[in-house]
Amino acid sequence: MDTALDGLHPVPVPIPYPMKYVNLVLIEGDGMVLVDSALDLPDARRAIERALAARGARPGDLDAVVLTHHHPDHYGLAGWFEQQGVPVYMLDVAIERDHVWWSCFEPWLERSAAHFRKHGMPGAFVADLRKVMEETRSRIRPPRNPRALVDGQQLELAGQRFSVHWTPGHADGHLVLLRDDGVLIAGDAILDRITPNVGKWVGSRPDPLGDFLHSLKKIRGMEPRAALVGHYGPVIEDVAGRSREIERHHEERLRLLLEKLESGARSAWELSLELFPQPGLSASQRRFAWAETLAHLVYLELRGRVRSSGEDPLRFELVG
Ligand SMILES: [Zn+2]
Fold first, then answer.
1. Number of domains the chain contains
2. How far is CA 244 from the centre of its chain?
């Protein structure tokens, strides 16, 4: 492994999603800290136990688990670690805004279903999606008592110095950890091969795409020498170059969306079918496509390029 990553070990853990793996990061030095936690599935638990056993440790020996964000594949086993006496840390914003997705699941599911319908998702599809989300919930053990980190905080993890940075966009309460030698633990704030999903979910901050683009700039400003990322990778060396590629991707998608709207008003659902025409997308993937389309629409609406009308479903149209 690159010596620049001394003391940081990517731990690929299988997940039943198209990405196939989530990369956790084991910080090893004076003690051990794990960043992120995968889904509560037997294969995932075994992969984590094996990685720790190779260093003579068990899950309960960890000093802490730090979660980059609340998505199931990063958060699902947090409660399992907590039950073994390991404190679980998240950004304060994630505890306030995102953690409730899973700790107060039923009300959140109801509000989500209404949000899907409002933006044009057909009823039968919403019903399918509820099943998918209930299955996902069964693979998650939320932490009961997550502890808060704050933006800008300096902290020592396993004897190494890090700073915590809030990078909203992919999730409202997403954090990255910058080691004092410039290595970034990035979670899903930036990814190789795929672009991080940016969705407007129920209760999301007002402008997830605006947040995301701002977070990419913030990451560039940190001048990281390398980033350990949550999927694929596991290392991105040209972080600035990759962040600019992702920016260009969104500029192109915004341009395409404006072009589609030239032929008249449509719901976010209808537009998502046109922008992501790939056949055979799973219900989950269709949901991500819809949420990303809505994030782009809201971005344009906030900048006066499109407007929405209050019909049921809500439709978006070009301004002027
Ligand atoms: Zn994620």
1. 2
2. 19
CATH code of the domain containing 296: 1.10.10.10
Greatest Cα-to-Cα distance within the chain, rounded to the nearest angstrom? 65
**241 alpha carbon – ligand 1 mean position (Å):** 21
- Which DSSP state fits 195? P
**62 falls within a domain:** yes
Residue 116, CB-side half-sphere exposure with 13 Å CA sphere? 23
CA dihedral 255, 260, 266, 270 (to 10 degrees): -100
What's the rounded Cα separation, in Å, for the pair 66 and 304? 39
pLDDT at 1: 47
How far is residue 124's CA from residue 78's CA, in Å, rounded to a whole number?
Answer: 33
Domain that holds residue 55: 3-126+133-238
Judge contact between 188 and 172, C-beta under 8 A. Answer: no
Span 159-206, pLDDT tens digits: 999 999 999 999 999 999 999 999 999 999 999 999 999 999 999 999
Ligand 1 center from residue 188 Cα (angstroms): 5
192 alpha carbon to ligand 1 midpoint, in Å?
13
If you measure from the C-alpha of residue 264 to the centroid of ligand 1, how many angstroms do you get, rounded to a whole number?
33
Ligand 1 centre distance from Cα of residue 314 (Å): 27
Same domain, 194 and 45: yes
Residue 193, token pair as written in the block:
């091969």
179-216 burial code (b ≥16 CB/10 A, e <16): beeebbbbbbbbbbeebbbbbbbbebbebbbbbbbebb
CA of 124 to the centre of ligand 1 (A): 26
Residue 139: both structure tokens together: 């693979």
